[in-house]
UniProtKB/TrEMBL annotation:
It comes from the Eukaryota. InterPro entries: CenT-Element_Derived, DDE_SF_endonuclease_dom. Pfam families: DDE_1 (PF03184). This is Tigger transposable element-derived protein 1. One of its GO terms (molecular function) is DNA binding. The lineage of its organism: Eukaryota, Metazoa, Cnidaria, Myxozoa, Myxosporea. Residues 3-176 form the DDE-1 domain. Coiled coil: none annotated. It comes from Thelohanellus kitauei (Myxosporean). GO terms for cellular component: nucleus.
Length: 268
């Protein structure tokens, strides 16, 4: 049942411009996309994302806001970020300057690592289990059967979109308080909406599925996936991609039909 991808998210300090995320998946031609034409090119994924997505989005945002066409892209020291990235940016986007954070500072300085990523993951989890309840309501489908037969990368992308849209400007702005506290102090946050927190809603959804969980289980689940992919893990994703192309296989499937609460961490 193991199936992995890596996702990069990015937004402005003000939180009012969310860039379309970059997703790298191990399959070039997922079965869920069999009705769509996919152009198979050997791309330098991150460089292409800069020139095709980040650059145009930021330029449009700056022009619409009547701001100087200047931008600073702050990155951590990831093996997925080429060291010569500045040289690979197209001429029309040379207004973008790339700055790498010092090594081993991502957990304490990288804005998205402060609140953005964890909030996104909680929203993703909430939408995922909402989807599960919608599909399995009034049926005898188990969580494992749902995961095997009613969930794929196409549905995953829709949930990613919903979760990313749900991350508030307040969350994105406050994530900069360690790296750029002055910018956070100048912002006026919107009031929090009354009602259940994301964690409380996830717990409620889980309990409706007959699972005995608490809010701390939600936080532990999110923490389980905070580590960035290593070079070896990225290579493993590419190796999986090559294997699927050569063997024509799809997702790995499991014959087990019973799932326990503890296995949720392995599924998500």
């Amino acid at each position: 049942m193991e199936d992995r991808f890596t996702l990069a998210i990015c937004a402005t300090v003000r939180g009012d411009c969310k860039i379309k995320p970059l997703l790298v998946y191990h399959s070039e031609n997922p079965r869920a996309f069999k009705s769509h034409k996919i152009y198979n090119e050997k791309l330098k994924f991150f460089v292409e994302w800069i020139n095709l997505v980040f650059g145009p989005s930021v330029k449009k945002y700056l022009q619409e806001k009547n701001l100087p066409v200047q931008a600073l892209l702050i990155l951590d020291n990831s093996p997925a970020h080429p060291p010569n990235l500045q040289d690979d940016i197209l001429e029309e986007f040379k207004f973008i300057k790339v700055l790498y954070l010092p090594p081993n500072t991502t957990p304490i300085m990288q804005p998205m690592d402060q609140q953005g990523i964890s909030n996104f993951k909680k929203l993703y989890t909430r939408h995922l289990f909402r989807r599960y309840i919608e599909v399995t309501d009034n049926t005898n489908l188990t969580l494992r059967e749902f995961w095997k037969d009613h969930f794929n990368i196409a549905i995953c992308l829709k949930i990613i979109d919903q979760a990313w849209l749900g991350v508030t400007t307040r969350t994105l702005t406050s994530a900069w308080k360690k790296l750029w506290p002055e910018a956070v102090a100048e912002r006026i946050y919107e009031e929090l909406e009354p009602g259940m927190s994301v964690e409380e809603e996830i717990v409620s959804l889980w309990k409706s599925m007959g699972l005995e969980v608490e809010e701390r289980d939600v936080n532990e689940l999110v923490e389980e996936h905070t580590q960035e992919l290593t070079t070896e893990e990225i290579q493993e994703l590419l190796s999986q991609q090559h294997t699927e192309v050569m063997q024509g296989i799809g997702f790995e499937e499991s014959e087990e039909e019973v799932i326990y609460t503890s296995e949720i961490k392995e599924i998500l």
